[in-house]
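Render this sequence as a predicted structure.
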Amino acid sequence: MKILILHLSDIHFKAKEDIILNRVENIKNVINKYANDISGCFTVVSGDIAFSGNSGEYLIARGFFDNLEERLKTINNSIYIKYIMVPGNHDCNFKNDNNVRKILIENMTQKVNSLNDCSIINTCTSTQKEFFEFLKPYSSTKDFQDFKALYYKQNITLGYYKIQFNCYNTAWMSQKDEKQHQIIFPIDLIKTNNDKFDIVLSVFHHPYSWFEIENGKNFQKYAEQTSDIILTGHEHDLGQKTQSKITGEKNEYIEGGILQGNVDNKNSEFNVLIVDLKEKKQKVIQYIWKNDFYSEKDNTDWLPFVRSKFLQKHEFKNNDTFVSYLIDPGANFTHPKKGNLNLNDIFIYPNLKEMNPEGK
């Protein structure tokens, strides 16, 4: 089974006259090249959706993404379509900034290990209120208070493959005049569980050079141990690289270019990543706007998709034949939007909720 990642970044929606609004069909035409054998299309946006983080800009963004989804559905109505989004520094509305937030940020760098007060997190993410309201229709998480404003995830099952997206809000303490080595991320507060997924992708806006040095090293180690593929943005530098460690661990990094600069800026780039989960191979294609359409800037050959060694520890995997047997419902059930159904499509697990009534 193949999945396609459409990696967009740094869109900076600002006005109804934005150039990118007229290029939805062009983006769809790129995806159309690969749509015949794609089971899932994930549009991953690694930050800076808006220009200044206000609700009017997100209204324009919603129109863009809804239009893109409708165009993608015309390619193949059976393809699973999902948006994965994280905020960037431009997704902070600094009109909502205040002196309390500024003082907290100024004094936070040395206290990252003791950051466990939800009121601090909620104050620092108050500039992202409009972003999280925009995000709700696209996310399985609806409440972005407390620690969920820093980290949220999307878990998806396609057939008998399980996919996880880890979403990190590295812009939670962004400032208007942002400089390198000023960001910290409290990784001790984040708990991930990756050992049951066939692929784990992590998405965040800022590359490690924007973190406080020691915290950046710790965050990098954490991200690489809990991810197969890592997607970033912010620096407007389209790229792809494989990070290898002496221990044998490997991670694929996909760096986002700028999809749209200023209103009159015609520079526009994005990535397409295709992963064949069954054959365990992957391919990255970079696209750039040229001569009124998106053309290939660079691409890789089909390369092996090698999972992070850390994620494979103590993991037992059934082979495809036995998994097919396990999820066979025993009869031919079909659905107009998918075709043949398996047990994962129709079996409903008990809906359990952990409750702790006060005083009980």
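Summary. The longest helix spans residues 55-75. The CA atoms of residues 55 and 133 lie 9 Å apart.
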